[in-house]
Structures are given as C-alpha cells and as structure tokens.
From TrEMBL:
GO function terms (MF aspect): DNA binding; DNA-binding transcription factor activity
Protein name: HTH lysR-type domain-containing protein
HTH lysR-type domain location: 14-71
Pfam families in the record: HTH_1, LysR_substrate
Tagged with keyword Transcription: yes
Family that this chain belongs to: Belongs to the LysR transcriptional regulatory family.
GO cellular component, as recorded: cytosol
Keyword terms of this UniProt record: DNA-binding, Transcription, Transcription regulation
Length: 316
C-alpha cells in the first residue's frame, strides 16, 4: 500500500519541466547553465531540483568541486527523463504535422554506408507514396545510431550492435554487407601505385571514424594482425561530408564504405588504393528496441528496407 501511495505521489508531482531540468543538468552538470537552458532563474531551478529529489526520495546528484555528478540512482532517472522528453518531442512533432494536414513523422538512424543504397531507395519509395510523411534521418556511425535508438530519438535504425550486451535492449536483423575501401584524392602521391602494403600507409595522415565505431575497431584489429602501430597523424571524424572534404584537400588516407565513395571514384575525385581491407566487417542491419510496437509508417519503412536489401546479405 505504501508503495502505491508513493508511486501516485511521484506521478502527481513530476512534471515535464522537471524532466527538462534533469536532462539539462545531465548535459551541463552545472545548475546555472541548466537553468539558462530551460529558461528559468537559478533559484527556481534549485527549488525544482529539491522538489524532484524529494518526490523520488533520494538524491539524483552529488554536489562537489567538479560540479554535479549523478548518483547511481540518478543515472537511471536521467535515462528515463531523456527517453520521456524524446517521446514527447516526437509526439508533439507528429501531432503538429497531422494538424497541418500531414501524415505523421518517421525518424530513422543510419550509418553512412547504408544511406546511399538501401536507405535512399527505401525512403524514396516511401516518400513517393506518402509525400506528406515527415521523414528525418540522423546519425552516421553505429555508435551514434545505437545511442539515438537508446535515447528514443529515432524510431528505428540501420547499423550494428557495438557492445556485447546490447542484444538485451535491441533486436538486430542483418540486411546487407558494407564493403570498405581505402581511398585518397586523385592528386595524392600514392594515387597511381599498383601495389601497396598497409605498412607503407602508416606514416601518411589518416581520417578515421571514432574509436567507438565498429569500422574503426576493425581497422585497429587489422593493424594489430599485421604487427603495425596505429597511425600517429590522425583526424577522428564521424561526419561523412567533412571526411570527404578533408580527403579532397589533403594527402590523407581514409577507410570508407564503397557505397559512399562510389560516385567520387567514378568521377575520379578519389582513387581507391590497391589494398583489401575490412573484409571481416560484419554486415549492418535493422535495429529496433525490444518489445516495442512501432507506428504503421515505421513498419512500412522496415518492409521497404527489407525489399531493397533482399539478396545483398550473404555470410562471408
């Protein structure tokens, strides 16, 4: 009985403004900055936090010289606050779209290797049939899209699981392989080499995906198998647009999905180096949160993704 009363009291006292403050505090770890982020005075934010902690019955943050650090129970509460706000934001956008005569919203997370082929074709057909459906595409690397999925900022995602325990939270359905290519700009000193080894490239500048991405992990594994140290001259970049711009304006080397660089290779803006790499990179696939019913547009998008990836995934 006491537990039910406590739960009812929490529901009655907790407001979305409280959740917004918690998310702002999680981002800033500073009460003054968090108050500014949600447009309230700092004393008001302080009172709100006290009310929230009183409602939950435990401290959410430890106050120390380094700022505000979440307690273990605070971490779980902050994750809930972030998910709830993301759900509300997407619901509000969907409702506004319908109010203006649209047909809802679909948000998809996608790695850059999936975007030019599977995702582009699926979304093109989806929009041809449902022109008023508002579609958003977010993310570029698997670690990004998994985080977006976890935070409920996307409805579904194309990518890979990035840690061994994520299968407990997400369902994964393989869809397609992602062939990787080592590329340089057309004017690169190595552009016309017919034979090269990986060790000959280590001293050159590199543009690499973040260390948390599966492609980067695979690259480091290949270096380890070859007995090579990681390049020392590295720009870490998750943005495909920035990577392509950096490549064309420097003598850097990059490992990118074939689907991303295909048109650049055909236009002779980039040159593929004669080194096979990334052969053991696992295929990407459909990621969705476990035990969650998706909207009809999301389910239809999944059907289209399966349609355009049919036959492209074979075990290597």
């Amino acid at each position: 009985m006491t537990q039910n009363v406590s739960q009812i009291a929490l529901v009655n006292r907790l407001k979305f403004k409280h959740l917004a403050l918690l998310v702002a505090l999680d981002d800033a770890r500073n009460l003054h900055q968090a108050a500014e982020a949600i447009n309230v005075a700092q004393p008001s934010a302080s009172r709100m936090l006290s009310d929230i902690e009183e409602a939950f019955g435990f401290l959410l943050f430890e106050r120390n010289a380094r700022g505000m650090q979440p307690t273990p129970l605070g971490v779980a509460t902050l994750a809930y606050a972030r998910r709830s706000l993301a759900d509300l934001t997407r619901f509000a956008a969907d409702l506004e779209s319908k109010r203006r005569g649209g047909h809802g919203q679909l948000t998809v997370g996608a790695i850059m290797g999936a975007a030019p082929d599977v995702l582009a074709m699926a979304i093109a057909e989806l929009k041809s049939e449902r022109p008023l459906l508002n579609v958003r595409i977010l993310g570029e690397t698997s670690d990004q899209v998994v985080q977006l999925l976890h935070r409920r900022e996307v409805d579904l995602a194309l990518g890979r699981l990035t840690t061994p325990l994520q299968h407990n939270d997400f369902d994964f359905e393989p869809l397609s392989r992602e062939a990787m290519r080592l590329v340089v700009r057309a004017a690169h000193p190595l552009a016309h080499e017919t034979t090269l080894s990986l060790d000959a490239l280590i001293s050159w500048p590199w543009i690499l995906q973040p260390i948390t991405s599966p492609a980067r992990a695979l690259f480091e594994e290949e270096l380890a198998r070859a007995g090579l140290a990681s390049p020392s001259n590295v720009v870490e970049c998750a943005s495909i647009f920035a990577t392509l711009q950096l490549l064309q304006n420097s003598d850097a080397v990059a490992m990118l999905p074939e689907s991303v660089v295909r048109d650049y290779l055909r236009a002779h803006l980039l040159i593929e180096l004669p080194i096979e790499i990334g052969k053991s990179l696992s295929g990407f696939g459909l990621l969705r949160r476990k035990h969650e019913t998706l909207s009809e547009p999301a389910e239809y998008c999944i059907a289209l993704l399966r349609k355009y990836s049919a036959g492209s995934f074979t075990e290597g």
